[in-house]
Specification:
Distance between the termini: 27 Å
CATH superfamily: Flavodoxin domain
Largest sheet: 6 strands, parallel
CATH topology: Rossmann fold
CATH architecture: 3-Layer(aba) Sandwich
Number of helices: 4
Amino acid sequence: MTPIGLFYGTNTGFTMLVAELIVKEFNEVAPNLVTVYEVDRENLKQMQAYDYLIVGCPTWNVGQLQDDWDALYTQIDDLDLTGKKLAMFGLGDQYGYPDNYCDAIGILGEKFAERGAELVGFTPAEGYEFSHSLGVKDGQFMGLALDEENESEKTPERVVNWIWQLVEEFDLVEYLEPVV
């Protein structure tokens, strides 16, 4: 089993594409660390098998969870994530929905923290244009915030930087490929 479980939900496929990019970039750093699960096809209890978790969820409409995560939200209450490190990534539209940009990472992040997970992977909120987000805590996003509608060109660099941050925060140094 890999040390990291990546669980995501998607309606339009953008979150799936970001999940694939995350896996690709992790494989560049240290191959075979991540197992991917699309949550509409899996039992969330599988999350308990991993020490490190990555969760992806876009924000829909006016601050709502993506359909699959919305349907599974109450099942999170049945999880024991004590001792797990969990990093969130979320997609949103900062110009079309500036009052709830990437709310989903805050909504899910708080729920996972209630279940014992240690949230990691926070990123600066500077450089984004929005007025409010439930995904911001103490001036930082509670994970990686991405805007594929307006700033898709920034996604690859943001993902690479975040992967290296997670290598440190997940303490994955032992898995790194030696430099030749």
